Amino acid sequence: MKTFPWITVRPKHARFSLRIDRRLPKVGLIVGLLVLVIMIVNMGVGEYEISPFDVVKTLLGMETGDPQHVLIVRTLRLPRMLLSALVGLALGTSGALLQGLTRNPLADPSIMGINTGAGLVAVVLTILVRNFPARWIPVAAFAGALVAAGLMYVLAWRKGGDSPMRLILIGVGLSAVGSAVTTLVITIGNIYDVQRAMIWLTGSVYGRSWVDFWAFAPWVAIAVPLAWFQARQLNSLHLGEDVALGLGVNVGRQRAWILFVAVALAGASVAVAGVISFVGLIAPHVARRLVGTDHTGLVPTAGMLGALLLVASDWIGRTIAAPNEIPCGLVTAVIGVPFFLTMLYQHAKTK
Amino acid sequence: MLATDSLTLGYDGPNILDQLSITLPAGQITALIGPNGCGKSTLLRGLARLIKPKHGAVVLDGHDVQRIPTRQLATQLGILPQNPVAPEGLTVRELVAQGRYPHQRWFQQWSAADETAVRSALEITNMVELADRAVDALSGGQRQRAWIAMTLAQETDIILLDEPTTFLDLAHQVEVLQLLEQLNRQSSRTIVMVVHDLNHATRHADHVIALRAGVVQAAGAPRDVITPSLLRAVFGIEAEVIPDPRTGVPLCIPYGLCAAEPTDSLLHADAVGSRA
Predict the structure, then answer these.
(1) Rounded distance, CA A254 to CA A275, Å?
(2) Domain residues of chain B, as ranges?
(3) CB within 8 A of B72, min separation 6: which ones?
(4) Which residues on chain A are in Cβ contact (under 8 Å) with B110?
(5) Hey, of A3, A6, A17, A234, which one would you mutate to test binding to chain B, going by the most B CBs within 10 A of its CB?
(6) Which positions 214-233 of A are in contact with B (Cβ < 8 Å)?
(7) Disruptive mutation site among B109, B111, B123 for chain A (greatest number of A CBs within 10 Å)
(8) C-alpha dihedral, A64 to A69 to A71 to A77, nearest 10°
């Protein structure tokens, strides 16, 4: 008999046992290394070129012979790189939760209207409200994400039970309405306000500092472990509402809680980096190929792949049209749209 | 022991079951029978707290199940719903392991007891060879055995099953029913199942509850309950009931529909309980 597909940590005399997906350590190590390498390379590119070796030396606090390196690497570029990794982690994790929750591989914070809600609120406040303080926009965007998710929950779940397709359709519908209103607001706004608002609509980590990083990091530090702890509940929910109830899952409460964690991650990401689409769609999908459907492995893997995807997108955005910079949100959209359409096509074919 | 106390169940429309009080004998196999829409699946779902009662209660060992924490209840009572669907690519072993959910906590994710329970569930259901195959790649009978194994890994004294043999061919039907009988005989588990085939009910159940339009028409041992007049009243069919040549249990041979009256109310019952 083959063994169980997980590593068990079970001390002999303790009432304690942990289960770790067998493929997780290897995948985690490889993806983690890739993220690290891309971040180091990415920190070297830009107007002021620095070799990867000098980047590493500077990060480790060693002399490189160029006094500028410390400022450029540690003050300007490092927070941006770390932030992009964390935003990717948050979006990938959020997508894995939403896909598990809806039992739909096409679910994602942008498709479900969560990002649109956040973006809409940011745009409306920037353009229509005179002198709305910029530092409150992230908070408002977060609230917008929550409202959009609440609408989804009420419209799709209160009556319809757990029909995954219904949820997606309502999400797409809400997104369309949200985008339409956003466009409307943009067309009536003045150019200067619109430009500021556009920052929210094309997600970017351009110019983010340590202040942004430290504002965002606590969200990830709290919400991502919470997401991991929901993995077993997600596994049960994935078997269908009746089976989950029979297994003793408090379905209503668990769903609301998982949705809240997913929205908190997606909303905080929009608040700090604007609307970055498709990371939450692609990362869990690739993660499923790597570690299978068990959420104890899937949720962490999707998070790490999300980080990889965003770090790589930022690097591509910074190098492909240098010296101009393409926002990473645009790069993920360019990768994501064909990916989404392919999946939609395959989904329709298997039905 | 599982029982209902003037249990009233329904969805948005009219009640499907009204003031139903029944007892499900402990350690026996009970079959719920009746025409489509009679409320037998609704009753099973109600027993498993998948639907909240409008009035009355489901009582387990003297306690209202709505007051028992759902996870604790899941260590006493397991349910296999009709046609459950496993996520793509999930292996049999992973599915069966999920039956351990109510026994686990965030700090107790995979105990030695979990491992033993899953292994023995796989052995009893004869799924050891198939344990590493994806559930969605199995035949109907194997898939049903995998789900039963998951319910067994839950290690509950009571197991409820909603039409466990639907969509299975004859050999697989017999296989599943024999497995349930074996579970009942060897570890005296209480089994309650909704069945369509009357002869399955008479051959494998100790206790039969016949429902029509949400009302119990008869309850008791198959020998006492299954009679031509009951079949007329419950199903609206004319049938011969003869003793099974091997076991002596009643065997039904339907040969026609009754006259107009019961058929009409049968249609009515269908319309009323269309969601059941």
Answers:
(1) 27
(2) 89-155
(3) A248, B102
(4) 4, 6, 8, 10, 17-19
(5) A17
(6) 229, 232
(7) B109
(8) -130
For residue A182, give the 3-state DSSP assignment.
helix
DSSP annotation of B86 reads P
Reported as a single tens digit per residue, the pLDDT across A47-83 is 788 888 888 888 888 887 888 888 888 888 999 999 9
Please give the span between the terminal C-alpha atoms of chain B, in angstroms, as a whole number. Answer: 25
B97-129 per-position pLDDT tens digit: 999 999 988 888 888 888 899 999 999 888 999
Identify the weakest region by mean pLDDT among A7-16, B108-117, B242-251: A7-16
Could you give the count of Cα atoms lying within 13 Å of B143 in the half-sphere of its Cβ?
Answer: 21
The reply to whether A249 touches chain B by the CB within 8 Å rule is: yes
Chain B, nearest residue to A11 by Cα: B111
Q: What residue has token string 């198939």?
A: B130
Domain ranges of chain A: 24-350
Cα–Cα distance for residue pair B243/B251, rounded to 1 Å: 6
Residues of chain A with Cβ-Cβ distance to B111 below 8 Å are: 10, 17
Residue of A nearest to B129 (CA): A1
Say if the ipTM goes beyond 0.95.
Answer: no
- Give B80's contacts in chain A (Cβ within 8 Å): 246
What is the spatial distance between Cα B147 and Cα B179, in angstroms, rounded to a whole number? 13
Mean predicted confidence (pLDDT) in A310-319: 92
Helix, strand, coil shares, percent, chain A, to 5: 75, 5, 25
A298 touches B at CB < 8 Å: no
The mean predicted confidence, pLDDT, of chain B is 87
Domain A24-350 classified CATH 1.10.3470.10?
A: yes
Interchain CB distance below 8 Å, A248 and B73: yes
